[in-house]
Amino acid sequence: MQPSKLELLARWLPEQAWYRGAGQLTRAGGFRLDDPAGEVGIEFMVVLSGDAVAHLVPMTYRAAPLAAAAAGLIGTARHGVLGERWVYDGEYDPLVQAQLAALLRGEVLAQAQNESDTVDETVCVRVMAGVTAVEFRRLLTEDESPEAPVGYVSAPYVSAPYVSAPYVSAPWRRVDGSLARGIVATAVR
What we know:
With 189 residues, the chain is mainly β. The chain has helices spanning 5-12, 94-104, and strands spanning 26-33, 41-48, 54-62, 73-79, 83-89, 111-112, 124-126, 134-136, 167-173, 179-187. The radius of gyration is 16 Å and the shape is globular.
C-alpha cells in the first residue's frame, strides 16, 4: 500500500489523545479478523513507538468511504491490486465492533496477521455467551493477562460466574526481539 500503514499511522497516531509514545513507529505484532462478507480488511496492529510504548490500533480497510466512521478516518492509500482503500480506526467502524464481539463469544477465530486462511494460535480468548459490546486497550501493558491455556480458546473457557470478564490477549515483540503479552480488548459489562 502507498502510503504504507506505518506511514499513515505516523501522521495520525500522535494526534490521538490516548497516544503516549515518541519517535519512529514499528510494527510489533497483531492479528486479523475476517469480514463475513469478504469485503473489508480488519486488522489489529500492535505498534511500538521509538521509546518502546506499545499501542493497539484496530483498523479497517474499505473500498469506499464509510460515513458512519468518518470521525475515525486514518487516511487513504492505494493498494497495488485492490485500488484505493479508506483506512479507518476500528473503534469507529461497526464491523470491527461486531466481529470482535463475535470473537469474544467464540463464534469466529483470530487469523494470522500476515498469512491468509491461517488461525493465529498465539491469540488467547476467554469467551462468554452474550457479549455485545467491546472495549479496546489502546495502551498495552505487559503480562497483565490472566493465566490461560496457550493458544486460541475456541470453546467457552470459563462458564462459572466468578471468573473475570471475557478478554482477548495477544503477543507482540519488544524492541529487543523478545515476546510480550497483554490484554488488547475486553467485553463491556
